[in-house]
Amino acid sequence: MELAIKDLVDMLGSSKVLTKKRDLLVYGYDSTPFKGNPVGVVLPEATQEVSDVVKIAHKYGLPITPRGAGTSLSGGPIASVGGIVLALTRMDKVITIDIENNRAVVQPGITNQNLQKALEPFGFWFPPDPASLSVATIGGNVAENAGGPHCLKYGVTSNHVIALKIVLSNGEVLETGMYSEDASGYDLTGFIVGSEGTLGIVTEVTVRISRKPEATSTVLALFNSGWDAATTVSEVIRSGLNPSVLEMIEERMLKEVNEVFELGYPETVKALLIIEVDGRKEGLSFELDKIKEICHKNNVQVLQSAEQEEEREKLWLARRGGTSALGRLKPDSAENDVVVPRSKLPHMVDKIKEISQGNGVIMGAVIHAGDGNCHPQVPFDARLPAEQEAAEHALWEVFEAAVQLGGTISGEHGVGLEKIRGMNLVFSQDEMLLMRKLKLLFDPNEILNPDKIFPKIVIEKAREEML
Ligand SMILES: Cc1cc2nc3c(=O)[nH]c(=O)nc-3n(C[C@H](O)[C@H](O)[C@H](O)COP(=O)(O)OP(=O)(O)OC[C@H]3O[C@@H](n4cnc5c(N)ncnc54)[C@H](O)[C@@H]3O)c2cc1C
Questions:
Q1: For the residues 364-392, what does the mean pLDDT come to?
Q2: Are 378 and 361 in contact (CB under 8 A)?
Q3: Which of 3, 143, 322, 439 is the most exposed place for a label (fewest CB within 10 A)?
Q4: Is residue 218 within a helix (H) or strand (E), and if so which, with residue range?
Q5: Which residues, in sequence order, are CB contacts of 398 under 8 Å at separation 6+?
Q6: Which residue out of 73, 142, 375 has the highest number of ligand 1 atoms within 8 Å of its CB and is therefore the one to mutate?
Q7: Angstrom distance (rounded) from CA 95 to CA 17
């Protein structure tokens, strides 16, 4: 290992290789309770440098964990034991913006927000908008196939990635996809998107960009039951309307949000929906009226509308602040991001309450309701093992409930370390073995984020069968 670090310093210079304990600590965590302990952190500034680093790691069998901003909610950027972190945050440039062809080419370390800012003067945007966009990187968005509120109408990251430059596990550089539309051959770009840094290191991303909608209107609807709010969501979609956003906060989280942000909602209110429509200005009021009709049919208690940016921001306050309002109750917090078919959302909302009571934990949720993607969050105190155990057990029951309702264990945050235990619930051994064998084709020495996504038993069996 010392020899590998020496080679890295010789190759990149000491300003791009961190080995001091205090520096390593900064790269030893993400947004989950998982912690890692990298033996070094490298900060390359170009594809060639990434390739040089990977060649050295390949030579010494050194595990590499790529990292963007470390906002992962699944433990993906946590270093493997004895491995290094390869942080891409210095590769943060826009390479080209091509309005005529609706394309932008960027380095992976640019934040989602800085890409949006670069597109703004042209009246364009990159629609996938994770709530973490002010810090999360495009490389991290690609590796996790990130979603966000506007993905209901516009599609998730994979729908907007056209081509990639990646460094393979032997240091070779591969370009996937085409600048033009392309349907020939296997979809290697699609295979890399969502692969959580286990197949290659993304060093350049070509994305599809879109003209921003001319106008947006927002409605905030408060209901006396989660069931009514979730039923409204299903009915809005079933009616053929095409809202750009359908976000929900359930009872427990809403209570905290109401208190922290002094929103003054009546105590009888148990669920909040934010609904947005966008497009040509003239068409919006027709859609909004229909949506309000459906809200009334489902016993809405309060309806507020906003068209100006400032008013809309006020309505979004509750949605954006939900996680932190609930998180403030305890020093630690765990969550997952299960998905259920949209029609099963009312049942899932009830399940969240039931599981919370059954395990004696606080559990609240923000929900990308239009996609059936729930984010149940459990604040706990990691210094108290019984509390941590109860939190983990409650979140395990959430996995089970989602799968029983016909859903799955992750809608957008990836598997990382956090959801490995749930993989058996949704995939057969054969499916997982096939996936792991595909990983081995890309990474025969298993150095790229080697311990993520798959249960140990699958990792070992795939290795045995591929030898
Ligand atoms: C407050 C908060 C809100 C969030 N909201 C959302 C949301 O609305 N939607 C959503 O989808 N997620 C959300 N997330 C989760 C997280 O922000 C996303 O998963 C994001 O895409 C991660 O980007 P990152 O740059 O932080 O990547 P990291 O956390 O650093 O890494 C994530 C994964 O990507 C891999 N990786 C990073 N860069 C590369 C690269 N260049 N090449 C190959 N692999 C790479 C890492 O190895 C790791 O497996 C939220 C997180 C927080 C803390």
A1: 95
A2: yes
A3: 3
A4: strand 215-223
A5: 336, 338, 351, 352, 355, 374, 376
A6: 73
A7: 25
The predicted model gives 140-150 an average pLDDT of 96
Least confident of 185-199, 269-283, 301-315: 301-315
Question: Which stretch of DSSP H or E encloses residue 98?
Answer: strand 94-98
**CA–CA gap between residue 302 and residue 135 (Å, rounded):** 34
- Token look-up 């460094």 returns 167
Q: How far is the CA of 414 from the centre of ligand 1 (A)?
A: 9
Tell me how crowded residue 456 is: count the other CB atoms within 10 A of its CB.
Answer: 9
Other C-beta atoms closer than 10 Å to the C-beta of 101 total: 12
Give per-residue pLDDT as tens, 298-315: 999 999 988 788 888 877
Residue among 278, 405, 260, 362 at smallest CA distance from 321: 260
User: Residue 428 and residue 324: Cα distance in Å, rounded?
Assistant: 36
pLDDT of residue 182: 78
Map tokens 């079933």 to a residue.
238
Residue bearing tokens 């296997």? 186
181 class by beta-carbon count within 10 Å (0-12 exposed, 13-18 middle, 19+ buried) = exposed
Ligand 1 site, residue 145, Cβ cutoff 6 A: no
What does pLDDT average to over the chain? 95
Domains and CATH numbers, the chain: 2-87 (3.30.43.10), 94-211 (3.30.465.10), 213-326 (3.30.70.2190)
Distances from the Cα of 292 to the Cαs of 137, 245, 282, 415, in angstroms? 36, 14, 17, 37
What is the rounded distance in angstroms from the CA atom of residue 139 to the CA atom of residue 145? 10
Question: How distant, in Å, are the alpha carbons of 29, 67, 143, 450 from that of 33?
Answer: 8, 17, 20, 20
